[in-house]
Design a protein that fits this description.
Rossmann fold; transferase (chains A, B); P-loop_NTPase (chains A, B); 8 helices; nucleotide-binding (chains A, B); Corrinoid adenosyltransferase (chains A, B); homodimer; 2 domains; ATP-binding (chains A, B); 18% strand
Amino acid sequence: MSESTERDARHKARMQRKKALIDEKIAQAQDEYGLLLVHSGNGKGKSSSAFGMVARALGHGLKVGVVQFIKGAASTGEETFFRRFPEEVSYHVMGEGFTWETQDRQRDIAKAQEAWAVARRLLNDESVGLVVLDELNIALKHGYLELDAVLADIEARPMLQHVVVTGRGALPGMIEAADTVTEMSLVKHAFKSGVKAQKGIEF
Amino acid sequence: MSESTERDARHKARMQRKKALIDEKIAQAQDEYGLLLVHSGNGKGKSSSAFGMVARALGHGLKVGVVQFIKGAASTGEETFFRRFPEEVSYHVMGEGFTWETQDRQRDIAKAQEAWAVARRLLNDESVGLVVLDELNIALKHGYLELDAVLADIEARPMLQHVVVTGRGALPGMIEAADTVTEMSLVKHAFKSGVKAQKGIEF
C-alpha cells in the first residue's frame, strides 16, 4: 500500500469509530427541556458566544430577551444590531458603566436589582425562548444580587426556555445549577502586545 | 466604621486601583489594524462567539464574509438568520457533512480547497471588514489544506480586515500567527447527563 492510500485507510477507520461514538451519544440523549448555560473564565468570547446564540435562536424562530447587567461591558455593536428587530429581541441595557468606573457600591446594588426585575419578567414569559443574562456573574460575585434568589427565579422559568449567563468568576452555586459550563481562557491577547481595542471586534 | 461601610470603602479602593490599571493599558495601546483571532479548544462557543462578532461588526456598519468549512458543524440557525442580510453578509457553506460522516479523504480535500478559494476571494476584498473562517482548524488539522499557504493568504489581506478562525485543535503555526487566541474548555456538559441536543442552542 502506498503511504497516501495507507493514510486514507487509517483516516477512514478512525472516522468510522468516531461516527459510531457520536451516533450512540445522540441516541442516548432523550429529554428535551430548556438549558441553563454558563460562559465564564478570563478569556474573550463569553458575551460574543451568547450573542451568537441569539442569532441562532432567531434563525430557529424563537423570541429572545437580553439583559446586560453592566452597561459598557459588552460592545455597543451587538446592541445596535439586535435592536433592529424589536419584535423578536427584547433588549435591555441596565447598570451604568463598570463598577470600577462608578465606584459607588450602593448605587451598583440598586442598579443590579432593577436589572433583575427586568430579567425576572423575561423569565416569566413563555413566549421568550432564550434569555441572555450578560455579565450576571459579575453582579453576583460582587454581592449586588443574592445567588439563591436568582437561581430560584431561573429554576422557575418556563420548561422550554433556555438561559445563558455570562461573566467571569461564576459562583460555585451557579456552576452547580448549570447544564453546560464553558470556560473561556486567554491563550494570547493582542492587547498585551500593544494593539488598540478595535471597533467591531474588541468593543 | 460599620461592617457595611468598611466593605464599601474597601470596594472603592479596589475599584480605583483597577480603573488606573485599565486606563493605563488603553493608553499604551496605539496601533490600529485588522486582527487575526483564533477560537480553539474542546468546549462550546467557538463558532457561536464568531457569530456574535458578526452581529457586533454589522452593528458597527462593517460588511462580513462567512465561510463554513464543514457543513453541518455549525447550527443552521445562524445561517438562516444571517442570510436575511445578503447586502451585508456574504455567507458560504462549503464541504459536506462531518468527515466522519463522509469517510472519503480525497473528497474532503477537494471540498476544503474549493472552500479556500472562496475564503481567498473574501480575504482579497477591501470592502469586507470581517471574515469568519468557521472550522478552518479542522481542515488544517486533517491536512486538507496546507497551513503555510493559508497563512500567506491571511497575512496578505487588507490592513483593516479582521479574521476569525474557529475549530478545535488549532495548529501551533496558527496560534503563532494569531493576535488573540481563546481556548474554550468544557467544564460541564448537559449532553453527558443525557439531555438531547436542543434546537436554538446546540444545533
